[in-house]
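Hey, can you fold this one?
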Amino acid sequence: MKTNKTYIKAFTLLEMILVIAIIAILAGIVIIAINPGRQLAQARNAQRASDLKTIYNAVQQYYIDNKAWPTTTMPTNLTEVCDENNEPTGCLDLSNLVPDYLPAIPTDPQSTTGTNYKIAINPNTQLPELTAPSSTEYDLDPVQIGTTTLNDPIMWAPTDLVSLALWLDASDSLTMWQDTAGTIPAANGNAVARWDDKSGLSRNMLQTTSSLRPVLQFDSLNNMNAIYFTNDMLKNSFSASQPNNIIMVAKYDSTYGYLFDGISTNNRNALYGGSTHRLYCGGTEPLYSGGTAWKIFSPVFNGNSTRHYVNGNVGGTTGTGTQNLIGLSLGSRYTASEFFIGKIAEVIVISGEDNNESRQLAEGYLAHKWGLEGSLPTGHPYKDFPPTK
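Sure. Predicted structure:
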């Protein structure tokens, strides 16, 4: 019996490889042509353009209705708009626009902290200018309103002070060590034997006695480090002749103790107390009410002009005394007694000048960095914005 057989011709292995290769090449060409990442970026920029227009219209309408801007002072340098958590540090608070002019403050589609939208008032046109810094991804054109010729500000730093004598910054984890040689970094909960000076003068604070070393604490203030003192002290031996301005962010946890002092009996610039803060530099002592909140202390030691500032407010001004500062003790009296119990976050020492502008620059810098700008008095030049160059 004869059988009819039907043969179906199939692809050879070589043909299949060629087809797959062609498909891969075509797919690559399509992906490059479509560029989904760039398309997603363009979609984000459309949202950014809408957000900037919304903010612009709200600010303008607020001004029309109230004959004033939604903040006390609007910046002339591009400044980031605060998010609902008032972040980041130094941002511009436009919460007065909510809910009458905005249901909520818009934020950049890719922002995790802050809005990542910046605004300024052009001093020539008196019109808002806005920009979205993240809009230039994939080399796209920037999303902005106005000419945005206003540059991002360069932030002021303590190293800009002509008479800077010492700068200690607990937020900089690279400046604190478990040993006086500076070879073992201090971590959360570690005793601090050395706190490096950032002024460039190498006036590091040291403690050779292990039982007198304070402890590093993370997230103490504004999610940054501070150093916790109990029966502890750090000291150095640098000299600073009056006038001296010793500025620091600190918090008393007890009712008494020396926040700082000299290291010998006849060369002292000191702040001590608790319920009442006192200054000493060899004469009578100006007073200031105390308490246990975080504060910016910025006393000026200058003979009969010695005066006490807390959070930018002047307290007692009856101080006298001409002692210079030889050596600095943090957290203790010069005799290693009457210890301060509390935390110190940052220290700036200005020596050789009594200059209100320098003091206020340092206060403004510290206030916005550590989240204490609300404590500065109305009229302080840096209450609303941190200092810039």
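The radius of gyration is 30 Å. Let me know if you want another pass with a different chain boundary.
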